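Saturday, quiet lab. Running sequence design on the structure tokens for the scaffold JK sent over.
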């Protein structure tokens, strides 16, 4: 299966915005283009946050609706990423039978590999924690990564332990 267009839905904190941008870079490197509407995409990523209950509920609700819609578009690949994915892991695959993959906060750099596996029909849960010996891969910024304006989010930690002094959430 050849993927061509993606759509990313972000709920929660600025870290999810940053990880979404990292994922855009990876997807652009793989030759995918951003879809303007979710209905145009053949890959949908839902970024989720666990700090507040409302974004978590919204993300799970959206994933549930997209899973139902996959009956009409079975080739659609759906992935859930971010802190909710990190927290619940394989439970999400059990809860949502049409969810193709779960990608934890420490596995963003593995998106390309996970997509290849998902496109071949596998259901994947990648939430294991990788130590800093792979930080070159994990924290790199793709040359195709979209940059808007004069500001950019930077990664200072991965995941959420609910104790960050700098977090506005």
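Result came back. Writing it out in full:
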């Amino acid at each position: 299966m050849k993927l061509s267009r993606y759509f990313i839905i972000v709920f929660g904190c600025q870290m999810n915005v940053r990880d979404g941008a990292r994922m855009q870079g990876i997807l652009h490197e793989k030759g995918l283009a951003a879809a303007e509407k979710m209905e145009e995409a053949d890959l949908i990523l839902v970024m989720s946050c666990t700090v507040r209950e409302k974004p978590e509920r919204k993300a799970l609700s959206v994933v549930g609706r997209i899973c139902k819609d996959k009956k009409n578009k079975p080739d659609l690949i759906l992935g859930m990423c971010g802190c909710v994915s990190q927290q619940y892991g394989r439970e999400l695959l059990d809860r949502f039978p049409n969810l193709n993959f779960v990608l934890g906060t420490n596995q963003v750099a593995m998106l390309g590999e996970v997509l290849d596996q998902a496109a071949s029909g596998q259901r994947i849960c990648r939430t294991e924690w990788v130590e800093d010996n792979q930080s070159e891969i994990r924290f790199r910024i793709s040359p195709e990564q979209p940059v808007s304006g004069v500001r950019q989010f930077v990664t200072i930690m991965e995941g959420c332990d609910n104790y960050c002094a700098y977090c506005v959430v």
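Notes for JK: The helical segments are 14-29, 53-69, 83-88, 90-95, 111-119, 135-139. The first strand starts at residue 5 and ends at 10. Ask whether to fix the surface positions before the next round.
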